[in-house]
Amino acid sequence: MAAKRKTPVKTRNPDLIRGVGKYSRSKMYHKRGLWAIKAKNGGVFPRHDPMPKAPAADDKPPKFYPAEDVKKPLLNKRKPKPTKLRASITPGTVLILLAGRFMGKRVVFLKQLTSGLLLVTGPFKINGVPLRRVNQSYVIATSTKVDISGVNVEKFDDKYFAKEVQKKKKKSEGEFFEAEKEDKKKLPEGKKEDQKAVDATLIKSIEGVPELKAYLAARFSLKSGMKPHELAF
Amino acid sequence: MPFKRYVEIGRVALVNYGKDHGKLVVIVDVVDQNRALVDAPDMVRSQMNFKRLTLTDIKIDINKVPKKKTLIDAMEKADVKNKWENSSWGRKLIVQKRRASLDDFGRFKLMLAKIKKAGIVRQELAKLKKETSA
């Protein structure tokens, strides 16, 4: 295909009605500048020789013929787009988690990962929520924003949160029942350090706002008389 | 008990239903037993059923169906806006609106303030109780 332009040119031949253009063939010849192309090429329309074909590989007879016709599946060129982030969620927004172990907790949003999940932190010292991934659908975005300029979240991505691969061990009968008492997974020290690094600057900017620390430490719950569809978050 | 607020030309009323809910309007004419012609500085003059209106204490001095400019001048002269915002009814509505528009952080701060206030009141009460019992 010829190289596409950055902005497609609107047609030089507008439709009077569907099927009928404004300009005739000869007028369009002039508008498209075919006379200039011909003039540049000495009165003849330029002709390019066909590109040399790549040498064809030897066509060997196939090794296997299926008994019945095998249907070819249709080609799928779909590329999934990253999840669209709600306009109300920007870095530094306080979110309310709606499900899971930390449901009701108010948490600071850091960034959206490539998988579409939101990277979020308590901060850990304030409400016990560590650096964690959370789905946008299980979150209410409040209009409260925290200053997040001093925090560096470049190194966190989905691979950081991948589960550790366990080597399978052969178990004998007697050891089977002891298997439950295997070592509880300890958090690697590196992750604890990362948490502290992220939280240090965050906590400082949080303490700058009065009552924000207590706000993040408290859980959200619906009380009597609160109607979610009438509440402003 | 006799009525105190009458439907009359110049009576200021609060719209309590419909598109113009919460607006202050002036009755400029009466159409029939059920409807009034109603006008406000920021809306097109239109008819409204009395059931959609709640009469207030405020009345302004106008003739039947005044021009918009005359209406606005009469409202300025009678100082309807300030009278309304300083009345207890008007103040209650303003507080209601502000409470409804609070965001989650605002509600949290409000809760803390209420607890603090209740604590102070209780302390004072305890002091007074001690004085009277002592």
UniProtKB/TrEMBL annotation, chain A:
The keyword Ribosomal protein applies. CDD domains: KOW_RPL6. Residues 173-196 are annotated as: Disordered. Keywords: Ribonucleoprotein, Ribosomal protein. SUPFAM superfamilies: Translation proteins SH3-like domain (SSF50104). Coiled coil: none annotated. It comes from the Eukaryota. Residues 3-57 form the Large ribosomal subunit protein uL6 N-terminal domain. InterPro entries: 60S_ribosomal_eL6 (IPR000915), Rib_uL2_dom2 (IPR014722), Ribosomal_eL6_CS (IPR049633), Ribosomal_eL6_KOW (IPR041997), Ribosomal_uL6_N (IPR005568), Translation_prot_SH3-like_sf (IPR008991). PROSITE patterns: RIBOSOMAL_L6E (PS01170). Belongs to the eukaryotic ribosomal protein eL6 family. This is 60S ribosomal protein L6. It comes from Hibiscus sabdariffa.
TrEMBL record, chain B:
Gene3D superfamilies: 2.30.30.30, 6.10.250.2270. It comes from the Eukaryota. Residues 45-117 form the Large ribosomal subunit protein eL14 domain. Belongs to the eukaryotic ribosomal protein eL14 family. The keyword Ribonucleoprotein applies. It holds the Pfam family Ribosomal_L14e. InterPro entries: Rib_uL2_dom2, Ribosomal_eL14, Ribosomal_eL14_dom, Translation_prot_SH3-like_sf. SUPFAM superfamilies: Translation proteins SH3-like domain. Keywords: Ribonucleoprotein, Ribosomal protein. This is Large ribosomal subunit protein eL14 domain-containing protein. The keyword Phosphoprotein does not apply.
